[in-house]
Amino acid sequence: MKVKRPILLLPSIGVILAGLILIMTPITSIFIYMTVGTIPGMIMILLFTVAGAWEISLSRTIAGTQVGEWPGLTRALAVLLILRAVSIYYTEDLAYTLNLVALGLELLALALVFVYRPAFMPSEEEVAASLRRLSSGGLKTAAQCPKCSTVVEADWTLCPDCGTRLPKFCAKCGTEIQEGELACCSCGMTVEVPASLLQTVDTLRMTAEQDAAPETRSARYARLGDGLLKIGRLDEAIEAFKTAIHYTQFDRKRTNFMVKMAVVMANKGRLDEADQLLDSAMALDPQDVAGAARLKEELRKEPVCPA
């Protein structure tokens, strides 16, 4: 836990002590001072134990100045002050004194939380970064692939199942985003691949490059190829599928990867290469489980926009 304001360690420690005192209060009221009956006392024990544990947990929020927690923190301290007043009413002697001390610690915590309220708010840099994220990556896509009807996500560039390029639209004005455009031509909103998706692809790449059994590496490179399709890195996706083919000894897995490669090549306008690859896939698997013949027929009758 990172402490941004060392002075807030004082109220953080104070609420821990106050929470412990709150837990002990009903026990002393029942068994030492006998100011509370047994049944109400048992209810108080349960209530004050939960409240005391809750108060102790606030110490981490205060010391770490957790962003966005200021409203909840002040409400919690206000509730605890009410319970503290009840504790003071039902206690005597040493317990009474300890609860007064705990009351002072809670008031100090509440005061310092108010004074250092900006510490619990996002910094100007964080706000600016959030605004930049909102003003970039403004992209939405179809809910499913227009070719194979596979459900797709908004950040994907190509369908990972069939490799078809997905239509993209500006999330702000609805204008279609053409391939290669870095900003909406209508409203100017920038288009970026989300960092989380890039990080996922980097992780898939590192995993694929690790030593493993051939079939395991084949599966890993295939997943890498799917990931590269999602962010639109077509040439790298083709190479990943080639590597997946290299590591597997099963012809039907090879033909499946070859069909995906053919769709990607078709999306890039490399129709002759795609046609040859599909012929090779059908020769490798005469039963054509991967659907190379069907895809070849579609490529012949449907125009494909070049990349």
Any overview of this molecule?
The protein has helices at 9-31, 38-64, 70-89, 93-115, 124-135, 195-208, 214-230, 234-247, 251-267, 271-284, 292-301, and strands spanning 139-141, 168-170, 176-177. The two termini are 49 Å apart. Residues 134-142 and 302-307 have low confidence and may be disordered. It is mainly α.
Helix and strand string, N-terminal first?
HHHHHEEEHHHHHH
Mean pLDDT: 80
Q: How many strand elements?
A: 3
Indicate the proportion of strand residues: under 5%
Q: How far apart, in Å, are the first and last alpha carbons?
A: 49 Å
**Sheet having the most strands:** 3 strands, antiparallel
**Overall 3D form:** elongated
Structural class: mainly alpha
Low-confidence stretches: 134-142, 302-307
DSSP helix fraction: 55-70%
Rg is 32 Å
What strand order characterises the main sheet?
A: 1-2-3
Tally of helical runs: 11
In short:
This protein has 307 residues and is an all-alpha fold.
List the SSEs and their pairings.
Blueprint (H helix, E strand, L loop, with lengths): L8 H23 L6 H27 L5 H20 L3 H23 L8 H12 L3 E3 L26 E3 L5 E2 L17 H14 L5 H17 L3 H14 L3 H17 L3 H14 L7 H10 L6
Antiparallel strand pairs: 1-2, 2-3
Helix pairs in contact: 1-2, 1-4, 2-3, 3-4, 6-7, 7-8, 8-9, 9-10, 10-11
List keywords for this structure.
single chain; mainly alpha; 11 helices; 3 strands; disordered C terminus
